[in-house]
Amino acid sequence: MDTCKCSTQIRNLTVRKHDGVILHDVSFDVHHGEILALIGRNGAGKTTLLKALLGRIPYTGTVVFHNSKGEQISNPRIGYVPQNLVFDRSMPVTVGDMLCSNMGGMPVWLGHKKEKLNQARKLLATVGGNPSLLNKRIGSLSGGEMQRVLLAFALDPKPDLLLLDEPVSAVDRRGIEVFYDLVTSMRAEHQMPIILVSHDLSHVEKYATRAVLLDRTVLVSGSVREVMKTPEVREAFGLKLTGGVK
Amino acid sequence: MMSTVYYLIDTFLPFEWTEFSYMKNALLAVLLITPLFGLVGTMIVNNKMSFFSDALGHSALTGIAIGVLMGIDNYLISMMGFALLFALCISAVMDSGTSSADTIIGVFSSTGLALGIVLLSASGGFAKYSGYLIGDILTVQPEEIGMLAGILVAVTVIWCLFFNRLLLTSINADLAASKGINTRFVEKLFVVIVAAIVTVSIKWVGVLIINSLLVLPAASARNLAKGMRSYHLIAIAISLFSGVSGLIVSYYTGTAAGGTIVLIAAVIFFFSYFLNRARANN
Asked: Keyword Nucleotide-binding: yes or no (chain A) (predicted)?
């Protein structure tokens, strides 16, 4: 595992929209086995940065991916777990349909091959999902179930970078803790670099290894402990008034 | 080739309505078009594009007008060309994100319709072309049936190769993009397929009702289906059933085939709607 060199380097990433600058000159690295927490106030550009990394919005600057051998890869596989997946809940798509359609081969409207279904079942098991979820419509899943399915979806094929947007609205507190336990165990097992957008400093302190405070650009970055002590973070989260992080 | 097919129809369907060769041709056309509509309709409904396919139907009038002005005998070429241009324009304006999708489509739809009416009425009276509004499936020619079969095969092949990507893009484009799917390409490909099948069949189904045939079977299937497989199977089955039964009913009642087919599909929709409601309440 120590020989793994996969990493993502972000250099001078700038996003402009309608003459306004949303992100300016963002640079940082995330290496294998790291959970890098991206923190900042609402509208700081966290989600924009994730979308830029996904190639969904135009940006200037460079994002370079390296695989486990340290070679540069041009077509990186990115696992993406959105905070709240926006989709048509009445669509007749089962979890099995969704997972199998990502595995290539037979089009899911013709049905599923047994091996593919088994593969999907295994995938669900790695994120602690019940195999019975396979036949459920994705629109009928609870927030916590959906988060697991999305995580399973993100993990196959094994990504070069995992982007997690913290589930806040759809999942209860207990569900969030289960989610983070999963992420932490995946980090130990797969050693892939993880960028985590979080809105909760206590989660960041508990689970992340490094942190980046974003407000249109990188204000502070470093180890979680260092970043938490900086006046910028204390100001951004209004900690001066409440007396600090518990 | 056709005589063998006619012979088979005579042997297996020895009814009064199959005696005439125009009815045989119409039956064959229905057997080819309706599964196609059921298949493609599933994703039109999933992608909330029913208004879009309607606009494409309207654009066909302008396509015909362009054909008339250019002196082309076969309007199919000008219709297809214009519909493709039209579809890609709508899609490009939608990508720019300046107005909401329904507004943009509404603007294009009315423009396509109005331009068609103006151009056609200028070149010698609109009445001559009013047949395109409701279409006539009984005018299908044997050589056109061959073309329909070709399109059915082509779309089925595309549906086999690209469906998984189409589905993921339709669930959520960001999620699909994270898997390296070129969502723009997939969306454009789908738009081109819809434009192609709408223009090819407009002559027989008509500008006014073509969209109902694309949307109704899939909309009914959505009320009943559990997953993608049953969604497709049910949509195709409903589409085929309403097509064939509508054709037969229209023969005996002397009504327009297109309208009769749509009415049957609509009845099935309401039936599926109430079935779904009843199931949800239990």
From this structure: yes
